[in-house]
């Protein structure tokens, strides 16, 4: 072969910027000339690489432009080291979360105010009994699978249902504990009373997560919360004049042995839930 | 065959939603036709692994959804548009699809973002991606829901009433997207719109009261009404199925009225003849 295609011609041919006649003669030459076929393959390879670089650059720019602004809670989670995708999953329904958070908080604030300004022990007792139920209700209202922001789509995704429930339960509990601890510190009672809600809160949350694998999150939370309130209401009692510690001491739930049993319940329920984690994916929604 | 149901039944309390369903679907688009309450949604929810059948065998993409490992593999290759997506309205379109993409385990932030943009572009929502779902029209929200089902180019795409709320242009775009995917993958769509079936489907399954009353190609469905569709100048009021057409003549399905001439059937005629509404 006495002549060869120039690099400029091959590049123009690759991007379709040659006349039909020129394309035809280029193709005729390529069929006969191995050197020019090799050059064409090489130029095409470079072209693809260049295009990929260009697309990558474009993707980076679009990433910057298209990224929606994260909410405060989502940003907070990312700041404390939670990955961006997990932050989105857990902070997925901020409005719902705010609703239950505000409702639960207002009950406890009322309890603390009662404790501060009334002479009886009602406020402190109310606080200790209701504080453990708040995270349970939070989990059910916002993060039950049926309340998933993606609706039924969220049921048939490969992301493990158990992992999602556990993540969200941890987030609910973690966002709940600091304000509850601060409010507990404002209770007028001294000694152990302001601490007595903590172990039950852990136990009820783990129990809800474990039972969710059998009956679904909402029925599990309803059963746990109702059961707790009924038992507490039936066992906590005292005279108007006696302090909150005496009222609570009437119930096994708030004595040292009861608290140890509740702690054991929390650990057992967590083990059961982890062992049965596959069951959370298998449960039907209807 | 990628997906096969054998004698599948499902009951809700005393109501039998599906009875003895046996069918196979493969590459291309299969349309599920049937009246409201015929069992289309239950069938799709079973195929989407939302529900498990009370009786019968189910193979999805060659796997058994009762097995936890298999079910996970199926879900990784599944796209699902439920009848009511019921998504959280505080999300923007981008945030919602991104949220589902995370649940779909599309790993790598850049890959996920690029995939989210691709599916939103496929349904024509690139310009609207940062609008909140609560401020979108019904058709736009339906497109967002459709976009999430296309994430990861699913091998099995299940669409429940996908064209509800879409205007004619949006429906044409929907058909483009679905027919493109169906060249290599399996798409099952439930609908009561015979237009969608005529435009898209290779295979049609007609459901009535939880049972399959017809299965075959679109041409087969049309053929069932051949010789039973009539055009007359006056309506035969005794006939159960007739209506006045745009050119002033009366279309009848079933027995011929006096002075009527045979007309070539459509998919709708086939469906109506089959379900006995026109006779």
UniProtKB/TrEMBL annotation, chain A:
TM segment ranges: 98-118, 124-144, 165-186, 192-211, 218-236, 256-275
Protein name listed in UniProt: Zinc-finger domain-containing protein
Keyword terms of this UniProt record: Membrane, Transmembrane, Transmembrane helix
Coiled-coil region: none
Automatic annotation (TrEMBL), chain B:
Keywords of the record: ATP-binding, Nucleotide-binding, Transport
Superkingdom of the organism of origin: Bacteria
ATP-binding listed as a keyword: yes
SMART domains: AAA
MF annotations from Gene Ontology: ATP binding
A Pfam family matched in the record: ABC_tran
ABC transporter domain mapped to chain residues: 3-234
Matching PANTHER family: ABC TRANSPORTER, ATP-BINDING PROTEIN
Family as reported in the entry's similarity comment: Belongs to the ABC transporter superfamily.
Name under which the protein is recorded: ATP-binding cassette domain-containing protein
Organism from which the protein derives: Paractinoplanes aksuensis
């Amino acid at each position: 072969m006495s002549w060869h295609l120039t690099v400029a011609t091959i590049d123009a041919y690759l991007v379709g910027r040659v006349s039909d006649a020129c394309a035809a003669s280029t193709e005729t030459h390529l069929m006969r000339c191995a050197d020019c076929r090799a050059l064409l393959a090489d130029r095409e390879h470079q072209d693809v690489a260049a295009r990929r670089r260009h697309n990558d650059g474009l993707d980076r720019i679009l990433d910057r432009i298209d990224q929606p602004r994260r909410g405060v809670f989502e940003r907070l989670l990312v700041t404390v080291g939670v990955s961006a995708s997990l932050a989105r999953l857990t902070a997925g329904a901020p409005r719902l979360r705010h609703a239950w958070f505000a409702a639960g908080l207002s009950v406890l604030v009322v309890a603390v105010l009662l404790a501060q300004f009334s002479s009886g022990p009602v406020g402190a007792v109310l606080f200790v009994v209701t504080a453990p139920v708040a995270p349970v209700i939070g989990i059910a209202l916002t993060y039950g699978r049926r309340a998933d922001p993606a609706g039924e789509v969220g049921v048939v995704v490969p992301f493990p249902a158990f992992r999602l429930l556990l993540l969200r339960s941890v987030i609910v509990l973690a966002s709940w504990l600091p304000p509850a601890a601060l409010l507990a510190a404002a209770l007028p009672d001294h000694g152990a009373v302001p601490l007595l809600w903590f172990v039950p809160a852990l136990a009820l949350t783990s129990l809800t997560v474990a039972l969710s694998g059998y009956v679904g999150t909402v029925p599990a939370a309803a059963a746990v919360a109702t059961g707790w309130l009924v038992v507490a209401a039936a066992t906590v009692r005292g005279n108007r004049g006696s302090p909150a510690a005496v009222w609570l001491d009437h119930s096994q739930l708030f004595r040292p042995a009861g608290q140890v049993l509740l702690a054991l319940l929390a650990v057992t329920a967590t083990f059961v839930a982890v062992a049965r984690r596959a069951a959370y994916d298998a449960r039907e929604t209807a | 065959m990628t997906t096969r149901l054998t004698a599948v039944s499902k009951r809700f309390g005393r109501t039998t939603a599906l009875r003895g369903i046996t069918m196979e679907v493969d590459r291309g688009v299969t349309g599920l036709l049937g009246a409201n309450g015929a069992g289309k949604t239950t069938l799709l929810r079973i195929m989407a692994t939302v529900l498990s059948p009370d009786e019968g065998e189910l193979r999805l993409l060659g796997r058994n959804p009762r097995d936890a490992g298999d079910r996970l593999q199926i879900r990784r290759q599944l796209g699902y548009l439920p009848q009511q997506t019921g998504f959280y309205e505080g999300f923007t379109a981008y945030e919602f699809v991104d949220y589902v993409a995370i649940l779909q385990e599309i790993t790598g932030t850049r890959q996920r973002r690029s995939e989210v943009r691709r599916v939103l572009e496929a349904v024509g929502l690139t310009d609207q991606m940062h609008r909140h779902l609560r401020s979108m029209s019904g058709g736009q929200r339906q497109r967002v829901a459709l976009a999430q089902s296309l994430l990861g180019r699913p091998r099995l795409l299940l669409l429940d009433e996908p064209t509800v709320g879409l205007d004619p242009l949006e429906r044409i775009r929907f058909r483009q997207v679905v027919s493109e995917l169906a060249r290599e993958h399996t798409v099952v769509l439930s609908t009561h719109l015979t237009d969608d079936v005529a435009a898209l489907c290779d295979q049609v399954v007609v459901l009535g009261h939880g049972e399959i009353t017809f299965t075959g190609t679109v041409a087969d469905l049309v053929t069932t009404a051949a010789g039973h569709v009539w055009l007359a100048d006056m309506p035969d009021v005794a006939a159960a199925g007739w209506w006045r057409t745009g050119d002033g003549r009366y279309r009848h399905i079933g027995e011929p009225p006096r002075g009527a001439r045979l007309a070539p059937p459509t998919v709708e005629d086939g469906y109506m003849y089959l379900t006995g509404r026109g006779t």
